Amino acid sequence: MSKISLIIQREYLTRIRKKSFIVMSILGPFIFAAYVLIPMYFATMEDKEEKTVVVIDDSKLFTEYDSGSATFVIPGTETLKFKVIEGVPIETFKEGFDNTGYYALLFIPSNILASESSLLYSTKQPSIQVTEYIKGSMESEIEHLKLASHDIQDIEKILAEVKTSINVRNIKWTKDGKTQESNTGVVMGVGYLGGLLIFFFIFFFGSQVMRGVIEEKTSRIIEVIVSSVKPFQLMMGKIIGVGLTGLTQFLIWLVLSAFLITGLKAAFFPELNQTPTEQVVASDMFGNGTSNLEGQVLSGSDMDMAQEVFASLRSINAGVMVGSFLFFFIFGYLLYAAMFAVIGSAVDNETDTQQLIFPVILPLILGIYVMISAINNPDGALPFWFSMIPFTAPVVMMVRIPFGVPLWQVALSGSLLVGTFLGMTWVAGKAYRTGILMYGKKNSFKEIWKWLRYSA
Fold first, then answer.
1. Per the domain annotation, does 46 fall within a domain?
2. In this predicted model, what pLDDT tens digit does every residue of 395-442 receive, in sequence order?
3. Cα distance between residue 308 and residue 315, in whole Å
4. Are residues 221 and 276 both part of a single domain?
5. 131, 200: one domain
6. Which of 349, 328, 334, 359 is nearest to 428 (CA)?
7. 340 with 391, same domain?
8. Cα–Cα 20 to 30 A to 59, which of 107, 118, 157, 166?
């Protein structure tokens, strides 16, 4: 046992002293936050380029005439303008449209009410924002025209009065009868993130075990090491040492992420730390909005959404999530690391691992696909069974847990995972002690099966 401890200590200290480990441990949460937030920022950036869409309205339903000038009834925006042209056929614009300076040409046929279809011509693909704006505006206008044909008095006033927006807030009952507000989107995001991190950690640190075995094997250091310790002790020492490295990095990321989230919350959403009375007072002062640190006004709807998100995060039991993540990461990693160690012992260089590694990681990849189904229906038959299968359970179960999983299911999944890990470690140990000293031959799973029989 002391020899395994020495190997664990060597593997652990060697890796945490590397500059790459220190840098990634500190920058990891910031890189991940940037990876999530930067695309969101770019996606919400407003397009400042002004676009002019020329309109040919054969139906005359979307054109108003005032003092001889034709105006499109759909209002433009700051960046999108409409210009009605009459008496000019579409064919005129077919050649040299780029030289006109127009963004696109909208053709509305005379039978628009029957066909319910219009054409948007352009030499380049129109953006989804432009297409959706035109589509939605035309649908709204046609609906008004159809309603107006019924000769209903005060139709505009009636439509304004009946227009309603409903927000459905999710409230969970706890076992002791208390209520907690939750948001399905937030819960889905937490589950997806947990499953994805499990996949990433298992694959990343499992690969480190494989590379470590290959490096020691190709440098022939392994021959010296196995003269002092048993191959099984060496394998377990490497697996546990690398696993502790990953666990240390995760805990550092967890602490830094907590400080990062707290800081961002205090900087950009100070209103969320106010009492309900303070929020009401602030709302009165700023007119249905709350001022943030930038001097801008945070609208009531944005305020409600932010409060709902943070309330939903609080409704998820952080202790259960972190504990479940650590459990499924540790034993999921141990299960796959044992198989990665066998692959490392079966090859002489990393290039030869390609034919052996895919069948090993295939269950993890399959777990990612099932994870999508689990997000939509966490209690479905497919997510349930895949959360019980040990090779996919670490990924799929982490998605289901934020939605609330019966304790017996978590216990059964965990027991099967631990049992499979013990069995796989025994099998991997038998193959490892034969393959670690095999050189100059490309091995297959058929050859590894023979090693198990040799060691029997």
1. no
2. 998 888 887 788 888 899 999 999 998 888 888 877 777 777 666 666
3. 10
4. yes
5. no
6. 334
7. yes
8. 157
Confidence of residue 208 (pLDDT cuts 50, 70, 90): confident
Most confident range (mean pLDDT) of 38-47, 157-166, 286-295, 375-384 is 375-384
pLDDT tens-digit profile of 125-178?
A: 888 888 888 898 888 888 887 877 777 777 777 777 777 766 665 665 656 666
Q: Give the separation between CA 156 and CA 197, rounded to whole angstroms.
A: 52
In a domain, 86, yes or no: yes
Whole-angstrom Cα Rg for the chain: 31
Quote the pLDDT of residue 297. Answer: 40
**Distance between CA 443 and CA 261 in Å, rounded?**
48
In a shared domain, residues 209 and 122: no
Taking each continuous run of H as one helix and of E as one strand, the counts in the chain are: 16, 10
| Number of independent structural domains in the chain | 2
Give the DSSP H/E element, type plus range, for residue 83: strand 80-84
d(CA 425, CA 43): 47
DSSP per position, 262-277? HHHHHHH-GGGGS-HH
* pLDDT surpasses 50 at 72: yes
Q: Is the alpha carbon torsion for 363, 453, 344, 205 positive or negative? A: positive
Which tokens belong to 387?
């959360």
Please report, for residues 6, 11, 293, 338, the alpha-carbon distance to residue 240 in angstroms, rounded to integers and kept in the order given. 11, 9, 47, 10
Residue 182 in tokens: 């939750």
- Is the CB of residue 267 less than 8 Å from the CB of residue 294? no
Q: Could you give the CA distance from residue 337 to residue 341 in angstroms, rounded to a whole number?
A: 6
Q: Which pLDDT score, from 0 to 100, does residue 298 have?
A: 43
Cα–Cα distance for residue pair 285/150, rounded to 1 Å: 46
- Contact at 8 Å (CB) between 407 and 397? no
Reported in sequence order, the residue ranges of 7-62 that DSSP labels E, i.e. its strands, are 51-57
Supply the range of the domain harboring residue 265. Answer: 176-454
Q: What percentage of the chain reaches a pLDDT higher than 90?
A: 4
In a domain, 195, yes or no: yes
Q: Assess contact for 214 and 344: CB atoms under 8 A.
A: yes
Nearest CA to 321 among 420, 410, 201? 410
Count of C-beta atoms within a 10 Å radius of residue 134: 20
- Residue 383 and residue 370 in contact, taking contact as beta carbons nearer than 8 Å: yes
